[in-house]
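Collaborator request, handled under Task 6.
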Amino acid sequence: MEQQLTIDDNVSISSNCIITCRDTIKIGSDVSISPDSLIDDHDYLTKGVIWAGKYKTETVNIGDNCWKSCNTVILKGTQIGNNCVVGAGDILKGVYPDGSVIVQKRETKVRIINEVNGMRKEV
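Structure tokens returned to the collaborator:
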């Protein structure tokens, strides 16, 4: 299998980014990739819990004029259209059309724990 990593013109890749290409990754022109991002076009194949020494791959394509915010992960098979924004901390797999703003909603829960007679109790 021949690996093909294509990065078009005017692409900015910040510090601590990892691009792991075992098949095909294409990054369009005018793309900005913020720090600590990962782009990966494969998964490890296992037999049970033991690595089989092989990979399952699918092409990754990031369109033109996209911004990938910090701490994002782009998984195998992901297709991001032109003029898209990927929010910080997102983990993407799938197809995202042109002009998308992709933000994975997170909920912050805060629970207070009190000690009552040696038992923990949520308030």
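The cover message to the collaborator said: "The CA atoms of residues 45 and 54 lie 6 Å apart. The radius of gyration is 19 Å. Please let us know whether this matches your experimental observations."
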